């Protein structure tokens, strides 16, 4: 060992480094200060494992003999003081170092020290014991005095001499003897005595174990009480302790830098103070530069953490943890405040925000997350006056594509929304560019309430986020499709009033590579079905349906499958549909008579409400004809439905008495040949033409009062249950009262429309009505309904051809709604048509798709639209509601993608709507 | 003085962390290589040397010259950097 050491000592620095390399030991820089340590380390390694601890000890002491080994000084001091003559001064100075400011209980080291020096302390204390008097020996000069102050009462009660010691050990012993005593070190004896007598109280030293030293005891108690009250208050606010700095920097920052989202959320949810510091400020996870979590995440390109952080902070539940007693409004304020701070706080070193960091280090994902938040300030300047956009990739990832990506993200993020009336009574509107920032101020400008005339608009689809220029381009081509494909798109728009605009937008967006999302009722979310996420959702939905046959039944009931549903699946429509007899027959096989009657009653009541709402809602002419058109139409629309049901419906129509219903809906009649039914149907329509028209006239006449309405309804029910023809006189009266226009229609229908073509006056009337209403009202309100009635007419013709081929009810496949294919199936099918669906990944979609492909295109055309139980008011009606951070928003979008700040988030819709109704419509 | 060079700004803008020695202003490829050869591979090791020399600029300059034969300008850059880092 010694030999090795001495050999090493002879080497130059470079040679020594070579030795290290040969031994396979890491070594730091070899300098004057480090060399000895490295030598010893290497020597130990070279000497091998047989070197024992004592060896190293001896070697260290040997090394300490060398002049440059001053690290071993304390040990050396102890050793020398133990071996050589005891030097009290040195001991005293040691004590001075150790004893200063020590509290009541002496620390362990002191005792150890006193033990180690015990062999000399005998002499030492001897020599010191007589120095209690200020007489100083040359060597032994007590540089300090220890005053020991007993408890306050003790001082009063005991009249002994002041406890002043020069040796700390004695002082400590005295302190031990007197309970609750304190001691302090003084430079001169007088002070020490004063202290010992309690004359001048030194509060400076923190003394937790003796809180009652002060003579002002009552006051102190009061203060104590106050303290307790305070702490109780704080307890109620929340019971979380603020984390130690070490935890913040070590645990939290490590989790953030590694991107360990699980660890991050565990820490944060266990104690919200990890994120929310004092005064609702972001916590500092890096001292010095004062980085918060967002800085660290941005620096390390942890987009996931950044998003998770924002989500967590904006989650009211999280804030509730911190402030359980806050008012909702206050909580929202706090959330906004701290989110703003997290997004925009500059660091201490360069005054740079997280966005600066993300740009500087070339982290497009983080830039995306940050920029998609409306509160993010994109024009903050750093110490050198640079904005984030000036710093893109200045430090790392200097590739052109990353740069491009980041600058794209930094631009305003616009969406192109598509707006539809909730009841689809008006043409869909392709909204103007929308971005989260701009819409904020917008609501302030238009606080006025909307007029009841305006249809309620919701966003049903949007493309984005895009840069403004791209968004503009997209919008233009959406509104006026490129010329070469104009016809195709035009056809889609015309033939598919429900989703035509979406389909065009979807195709365009996919073509241009823009992100796209549309609202799917059955999934209750905005997705692009052709994206991986969309497919996953669809698959989930389908497999759920696949395994719950009960669901089919339920849905089947809803599915009234009325062709005339299509034009305007609205409020009125829903009620109207419920009266359509076909609905009752979906489960006709096992339905009892009572049930039938019940349902009929229910239907009638729903008519009442429908008519009432019609009264309320329809302020002018245009709406009135709708009831007529729809009520009269259902029986006629029946044939396009699948055969057995159509048959049953016809039968029911023919039975003019409810009592006869049950026997007629026997399975045998259900399965009777379709051709027979058709014949019957035609005959029937001939016979009942008059009756139908009178019924429809009842409905088409605008009821002037509530009583009128009710009589009308009674008459309807009578007519419906089968009073043949109703009361002619009454009917005539009604007809007279009905608007001239509808009279016109009925005449026209009777004279012009042949039975062979339309199979029913009422249907013709309905169609005509629509046609007429188009001419009445170019404002767009009825455009869609008229257009669609045209299309439904077309499909009516088609469906008659296909009728024989339509599979009977027995066929059970996997469908999105109900147990028969519907329009929705077709819509979804068209959305994912171009895609190859992986069987393994999306088994249910595959199954469904193979079902779909078994139908011909023309079959699909004839599918009825499912009864839409519109969630209707997806959006909050009150524009001023604090919906921005309401829990609803969070439940609505459990998957937190950056598109959270997209137009899909309801509260913005109102603003868009207002904006667009003030603009000339499309 | 080269105290406002971009490199210096970049260095002092963030915590030193595990930055390599050639992230220091005034230490380029060549000097960085030399320092690394002597096991001064990280910026913090150089800072440590500066501290061991009791923050004495003269000594540190001397040491730099000795270790990697840096010229005055380079030394200036490094010293300001080290100081800035240290007092950050």
UniProtKB/TrEMBL annotation, chain A:
One GO cellular component term noted in the UniProt record for this chain: endoplasmic reticulum
Signal peptide segment: none
Stretch list, region Disordered: 48-74, 107-139, 547-569, 615-644, 718-807, 873-902
Biased composition (Polar residues): 114-139
InterPro entries linked: ANKLE2_3rd (IPR056237), Ankyrin_rpt (IPR002110), Ankyrin_rpt-contain_sf (IPR036770), LEM/LEM-like_dom_sf (IPR011015), LEM_dom (IPR003887)
Gly residues bias locations: 757-767
Bias type Low complexity, positions: 51-67, 739-755
UniProt domain LEM: residue ranges: 5-49
Family per record: Belongs to the ANKLE2 family.
Record protein name field: LEM domain-containing protein
TrEMBL record, chain B:
Record's keyword annotation contains Nucleus: yes
Subcellular location(s) of the protein: Nucleus
GO biological process, alphabetically ordered: chromosome organization
Any single GO CC term annotated in Swiss-Prot or TrEMBL for this entry: nucleus
GO molecular function, one term: DNA binding
The keyword Metal-binding belongs to this UniProt entry's keyword annotation: no
Pfam families: SAM_BAF
InterPro entries membership: BAF (IPR051387), BAF_prot (IPR004122), BAF_sf (IPR036617)
UniProt entry keywords in alphabetical sequence: Nucleus
Source organism phylogeny: Eukaryota, Metazoa, Chordata, Craniata, Vertebrata
Identification of the protein by name: Barrier-to-autointegration factor-like protein
């Amino acid at each position: 060992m010694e030999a090795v050491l001495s050999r090493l000592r002879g080497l130059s620095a470079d040679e020594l480094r070579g030795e290290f390399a040969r031994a396979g030991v890491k070594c730091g820089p070899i300098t004057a200060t480090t060399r000895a340590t490295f030598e010893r380390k290497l020597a130990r390694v070279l000497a091998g494992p047989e070197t024992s601890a004592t060896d190293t000890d001896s070697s260290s002491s040997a090394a300490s003999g060398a002049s440059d080994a001053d690290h071993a000084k304390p040990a050396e001091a102890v050793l020398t003081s133990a071996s050589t003559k005891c030097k009290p001064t040195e001991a005293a100075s040691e004590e001075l170092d150790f004893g200063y400011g020590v509290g009541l209980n002496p620390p362990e080291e002191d005792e150890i020290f006193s033990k180690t020096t015990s062999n000399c302390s005998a002499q030492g204390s001897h020599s010191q014991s007589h120095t209690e008097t200020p007489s100083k020996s040359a060597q032994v000069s007590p540089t300090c005095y220890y005053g020991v102050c007993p408890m306050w009462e003790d001082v009063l009660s005991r009249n002994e001499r002041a406890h002043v010691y020069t040796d700390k050990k004695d002082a400590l012993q005295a302190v031990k003897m007197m309970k609750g005593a304190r001691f302090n070190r003084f430079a001169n004896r007088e002070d020490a005595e004063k202290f010992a007598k309690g004359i001048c109280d030194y509060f400076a030293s923190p003394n937790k174990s003796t809180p009652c030293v002060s003579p002002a005891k009552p006051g102190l108690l009061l203060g104590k009480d106050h303290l307790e009250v305070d702490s109780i208050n704080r307890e109620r606010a929340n019971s979380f302790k603020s984390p130690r700095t070490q935890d913040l920097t070590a645990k939290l920052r490590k989790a953030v830098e590694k991107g360990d989202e699980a660890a991050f959320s565990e820490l944060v949810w266990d104690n919200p103070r990890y994120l929310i510091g004092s005064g609702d400020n972001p916590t500092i996870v890096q001292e010095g530069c004062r980085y918060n979590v967002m800085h660290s995440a941005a620096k390390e390109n942890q987009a996931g953490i950044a998003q998770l952080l924002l989500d967590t902070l904006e989650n009211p539940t999280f804030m509730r943890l911190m402030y359980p007693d806050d008012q909702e409004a206050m909580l929202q304020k706090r959330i906004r405040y701290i989110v703003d701070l997290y997004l925009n706080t500059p660091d201490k070193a360069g005054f740079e925000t997280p966005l600066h960091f993300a740009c500087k280090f070339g982290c497009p994902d983080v830039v995306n997350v940050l920029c998609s938040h409306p509160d993010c300030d994109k024009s903050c300047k750093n110490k050198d006056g640079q904005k984030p956009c000036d710093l893109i990739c200045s430090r790392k990832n200097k590739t052109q594509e990353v740069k491009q990506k980041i600058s794209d993200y930094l631009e305003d993020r616009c969406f192109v929304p598509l707006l539809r009336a909730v009841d689809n009574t008006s043409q869909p509107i392709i909204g103007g560019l929308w971005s989260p920032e701009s819409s904020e101020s917008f609501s302030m400008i238009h606080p006025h309430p909307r007029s009841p005339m305006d249809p309620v608009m919701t966003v049903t689809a949007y493309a984005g986020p895009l840069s403004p220029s791209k968004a503009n381009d997209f919008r233009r081509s959406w509104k006026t499709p490129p010329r070469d494909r104009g016809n195709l798109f035009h056809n889609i728009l015309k033939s598919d009033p429900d989703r035509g605009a979406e389909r065009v937008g979807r195709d365009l967006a996919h073509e241009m590579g823009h992100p796209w999302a549309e609202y799917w009722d059955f999934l209750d979310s905005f997705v692009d079905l052709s994206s991986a996420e969309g497919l996953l959702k669809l698959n989930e939905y389908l497999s759920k349906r696949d395994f719950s046959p009960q669901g089919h039944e339920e849905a089947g009931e809803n599915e009234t499958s009325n062709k005339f549903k299509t034009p305007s699946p609205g409020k009125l429509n829903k009620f109207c549909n419920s009266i359509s007899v076909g609905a009752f027959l979906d489960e006709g096989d096992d339905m009892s008579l009572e049930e039938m009657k019940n349902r009929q009653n229910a239907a009638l009541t729903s008519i009442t409400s429908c008519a009432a709402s019609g009264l309320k809602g329809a302020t002018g002419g245009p709406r009135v004809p709708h009831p007529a058109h729809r009520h009269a139409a259902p029986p006629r629309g029946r044939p396009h439905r699948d055969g057995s049901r159509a048959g049953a419906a016809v039968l029911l129509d023919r039975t003019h008495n409810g009592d006869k219903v049950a026997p007629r809906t026997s399975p045998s009649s259900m399965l009777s040949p379709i051709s027979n039914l058709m014949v019957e149907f035609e005959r029937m329509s001939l016979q009942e033409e008059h009756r139908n028209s009178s019924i429809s006239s009842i409905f088409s006449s605008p009821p002037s009062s509530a009583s009128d309405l009710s009589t009308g309804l009674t008459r309807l029910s009578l007519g419906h249950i089968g009073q043949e023809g109703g009361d002619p006189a009454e009917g005539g009266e009604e007809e007279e009262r009905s608007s001239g226009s509808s009279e016109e229609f009925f005449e026209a229908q009777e004279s012009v429309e042949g039975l062979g073509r339309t199979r029913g006056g009422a249907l013709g009337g309905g169609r005509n009505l629509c046609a007429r209403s188009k001419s009445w009202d170019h404002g767009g309100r009825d455009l869609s309904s008229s257009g669609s009635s045209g299309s439904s007419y077309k499909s009516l013709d088609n469906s008659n051809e296909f009728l024989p081929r339509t599979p009977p009810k027995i066929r059970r496949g996997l469908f999105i709604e109900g147990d028969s294919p519907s329009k929705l199936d077709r819509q979804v099918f068209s959305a994912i048509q171009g895609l190859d669906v992986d069987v393994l990944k999306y088994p249910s979609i595959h199954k469904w798709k193979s079902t779909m492909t078994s139908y011909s295109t023309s079959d699909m055309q004839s599918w009825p639209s499912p009864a839409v139980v519109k969630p209707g008011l997806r959006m909050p009606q009150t524009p001023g509601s604090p919906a921005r951070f309401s829990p609803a928003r969070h439940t609505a979008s459990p998957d937190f993608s950056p598109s959270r700040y997209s137009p899909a988030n309801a509260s913005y819709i109102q603003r868009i709507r207002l904006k667009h109704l003030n603009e000339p419509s499309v | 003085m080269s105290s406002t060079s971009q490199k210096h700004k970049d260095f002092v803008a963030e915590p030193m962390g595990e930055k390599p020695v050639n992230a220091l202003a005034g230490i380029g490829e060549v000097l960085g290589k030399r320092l690394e050869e002597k096991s001064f591979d990280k910026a913090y090791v150089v800072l440590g040397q500066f501290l061991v020399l009791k923050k004495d600029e003269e000594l540190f300059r001397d040491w730099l010259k000795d270790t990697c034969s840096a010229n005055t300008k380079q030394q200036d850059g490094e010293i300001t950097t080290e100081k800035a880092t240290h007092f950050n």
